[in-house]
Every structure is written in C-alpha cells, then in structure tokens.
From TrEMBL:
This is Origin recognition complex subunit 4. Pfam families: AAA (PF00004), ORC4_C (PF14629). GO terms for biological process: DNA replication initiation. The keyword RNA-binding does not apply. One of its GO terms (cellular component) is nuclear origin of replication recognition complex. The lineage of its organism: Eukaryota, Metazoa, Spiralia, Lophotrochozoa, Mollusca. Keywords: DNA replication, DNA-binding, Nucleus. CDD domains: AAA. Belongs to the ORC4 family. Component of the origin recognition complex (ORC) that binds origins of replication. InterPro entries: ATPase_AAA_core, ORC4, ORC4_C, P-loop_NTPase. Residues 176-362 form the Origin recognition complex subunit 4 C-terminal domain.
Amino acid sequence: MAPFVDPIEMADQVQTALRERLGQCWVPEAPIGFKEEKQQITDLVKRTINFGESNSVLLIGARGIGKTMLLKNALKEVKKDKNVHQNLMEVYLSGGQHSKPILFILDEFDLFAQHRNQTLLYNLFDIAQSAQAPITIIGVTCRFDVMELLEKRVKSRFSHRQILLFNKLSFKEYTEVFKKYLKLPKTFPDSKFVSKWNDSIEKLCQDGTIQDVLKRQYSIDKDIRRLQTFMMGPICNLSSTQPFLQVSDFIDSFKRMSTDSKSSILHGLSILELSLVIAMKHLTELYDGEPFNFEIVYNEYLRFSQQKSSLQIFEKSVVLKAFEHLQNVELIKPLDGSCTRVQKEYRPMTLLVHPMQLKEVLQKFPSCPIEVKHWATTSVI
C-alpha cells in the first residue's frame, strides 16, 4: 500500500521547489542561449588553474539577462574537474562571502570604478598583469560603457577582454526556459508525483492559449526576470484543491502584469506621445521587429501629421522630448549594447508595447482623435 501523502504538504513542497528556482537559488545545467559565452568563461578559469595563467575579463549585459546565472553555471561546470575542484579558490567582492583567493568575481563592477583612485581595481589588475600569482578576475556589470569609467592606469593593466551578453532567445528557446523553470527535479521526494507534474507541464506548454500568452509576453519583453514574475502568481495559487497549474492562472497573471504597468502608463500619455507609439508599432511590424531610432519615428509621425490637416504638427524639439519621456516610463528601451556615445536621435530602440495592449487602450482613450485611432488599426501609410 502506497504511503499517505498530505495534499497540503505536497503543494507546499512544490511551491518551495519552484520558488527557489524563480528566486535565483537554482543554477540550470545548461543556460539556454549562451553556450559560446559559457565556454569562454570555463576556458579562462581552467587556464588559470592548469597553466598558472592570469586573466581578467568583463561580463557585460543588461539587467535580468542572466549574467550571474551564466557565471555560476560556468563555475559549476569547471568544478566538475576534480583537479580544479581541489585547487580553485574564490573571492566574491560584493559584500558577499569570502574565501581564499585565486578567482575574483566583482559583481556590479561599475560600482568599484567609482571608488576613489580605483585602488582595488588597479592592484588586482596589476597582480594579474605581473603574474605575481595565478589569478582570474571576472567583472560583472550592466554598463556597456564601463571601460570609459576606468582610469588610464587601471585600463592599461586590464586585458580588455569582454564577453557581451545579448538576449538572442528565439520564441522556441523562450518556451524552453519557461518549461525548465516549471518542471520538478528528479530529487523531489515523490517520484510518482514528479512524473505526473512534469507531464502536466508538457501539456501546458502545448496548449494554444498558453502559446498565445507566451508569444505576447515574448513580444513585449524577452527579459527572463519578467518571465519569472509572470510564473510566480500561478505557482502561489497551488493548493491541496488545485495541485496543478491552470491555464486561467497564467492568463490572469499576464493581464495583471499588463494592466498594472504598460496599459496604465499608456492611458496617461498625450496625443503626441500616443502618436509616436503608433508610429513605432507600424515600424516594428514593417521591419519585422528590427530596432528604430528617433529620426525614423519622427519622419513616420511627420508623414502622418502632414496628411491630416486637423492635427497639430509639433516642432522637432518637442517631439524629441516626448520620445525621451516614452523611454523614461519604459515604453521603449535602448537596444542592448547600443553605444551611449551615439547621438541620442540615432540610438537604436525597441518598443515594449504589444499591439493588442495599444488596441485595448485606444478603445477606452478619452478625446483621442478619430484619425489617430484609425491610423493605429491600418497598415503603414
């Protein structure tokens, strides 16, 4: 006779296991989308251990892209080698844990560059360059312009090796990440339940409604942290009476995230700002998701406004201010890795608003001119 399993206790165990994953306590076996970057990190550390070669590198990527997860995964891979595991010593400099030094990991590297005279960075890079001891220094930062923050004497001792991370996830890979986070590990106490649960996740991912919701989520923002937030609500709804994830919970989670953030911001925009969002929507559709810049958006807006005599045509400087406001409220964002030294009018940007969100807002938008509403629903002029 099979042992009795308390449904409430089972639901708690599932929630705990999945929350740990979403809370960044979990390091996946193979991070999706960064195979080459992972190999670069593991090779670098192994050369320090096996050949006494000192190295330094900067791991650069936008917030939430997976820099820390990738680094942890690479080190986990390195430590599988018994020789490495016995000899590798780490120092985490972020107010975190300390141990004997060989590998230095400087999280939020750009903050260390703000220290007076950058003495710590200078000394570390100087040791690495002079080969006084075999060390590897890995700096982790979201600042793509971090090299500009370094003093000349520090910069001269740095290897100038950089690993740039960009969110290149395809929708298939994005769905795979979603699935990996939700599946229970083999180490879960009840193996029979694990089998049932993981089968239910496979079916969930094949559901047409879930696919539609994930596509909308993906088109708005491929950020993994946003995906984690999207999954947290349904996981918290698990209980003894609802032991498995429901499609309706994911729909509610998406609506809640959309309403709480983007839609409420859209309702507060001026007609000019709304017109720019519509122009960006058309450009995104026309060029199949390729980034745009202010100049392209302005020309699109100007073409539309000049054809509609009832609409006020604003000066370019005013339109630029409206464009910058859209960036400040995070309806658009700079493309990952776009150089900050590029003139702001030509900086590549991406739209973070889904066409369906825009459509829903326009239906309820007070005093929005009919021409603008019509422009949003028609093809590019």
